[in-house]
Amino acid sequence: MLDVSRPTRLVLGASLTLLVVFLYLPILTVLLASFSPSRFFSFPLPAWTGQWYGRVFDSLSIRDIMATSLTIALIVAVVATVLALFGALAFARFQWRGRSLYQKLILLPIFMPQAVLGLALLLWFSALGITPSWQTAVFAHLVWIAPVATLIVSIQVYGFDPALEEAAYDMGASRVQVFSEVTLPLLAPGLLSGFIFAFLLSWSNFALSMFTTGADQTVPGWLSAKMQSGYTPQVPALASVTTAVAFVLLFAGYALVQWHLRRRAALAATAEA
Question: What is the pLDDT of residues 161-177, one digit of tens each?
Fold first, then answer.
């Protein structure tokens, strides 16, 4: 470990503090605006009120919008994680003809601008006579998010020791047993991370949803529409709620991964003893 001098530690600490403030100050501003009693935000706040959160949860239209976003995000997260599991094994584990081309093709949607991808999908749906709805938004999100989840799970696959599977085969385990009792538990942290990232990327996605949801509306679309016309403090209130959901999911996922790793380490120590 490098011995860092006190002035260097102070500079690094100040730099880290400035970075954190730079990243989270806009979110803090939105949170403050959600407690403003007046329609337009002014700082410092003349008074504090939580009425806008009550109006958010009392609004039937906002409930429907949040339910739509939650439905899309959950379906996308589940399907993307399943696709990522097998896609990551093909991406990082096995050698086969066409693997190099597959690795390049699966990266293309990630680097494509989402607005362009959303417009292309909208034109494709129109050509096929498909009316855009939240179901088409699920497909559009998967086109962009499934490759991201695949790369996340691939990181775990690259650190996976194939000798563990070979040892299970030598002990008489079937392919199904090896996959369910060896491969899946070892890839669980990567799968959980891929699920969380897929959920959050879909939950907050605006560009793809704007082109492919049709008459259905998601939370990012509603926030954008209200910012352009009809702004009320319900906008920062709902934005704060969605941000809180993201933070809770991230911390819960981190806690689950740490619990899984500690449990696996405890089981390994018990087996060695």
Answer: 777 777 877 777 777 88
Pairwise pLDDT comparison (12 vs 201), residue with the higher score? 201
What kind and span of H or E run contains 75?
helix 60-92
Q: How far apart are the first and last CA of the chain?
A: 31
| Interacting residues of 200 by C-beta distance below 8 A, sequence separation 6+ | 73, 246, 249, 250
Asked if the model's pLDDT at residue 9 lies above 90, the reply is no
CA distance 126 to 132: 8
User: What does the DSSP 8-state code read for residue 5?
Assistant: -
What one-letter code names the amino acid at 193? S
Contact, 204 vs 242, CB < 8 A? yes
Q: Which residues contact 18 (CB under 8 A, 6 or more apart)?
A: none
CA atoms within 13 A on the CB side of 197: 19
Is the CATH number of domain 60-272 1.10.3720.10?
yes
Domain map (residue ranges) of the chain: 60-272
Residues 74-124: tens digit of each pLDDT: 999 999 999 998 888 887 777 778 778 887 888 888 888 888 888 999 999
Task: Look up tokens 């896609």; give the residue.
Answer: 87
Is the pTM for the entire model greater than 0.85?
no
Helix ranges, the chain (H): 6-33, 51-58, 60-92, 99-111, 114-128, 134-158, 162-170, 175-178, 184-203, 207-212, 219-228, 234-272
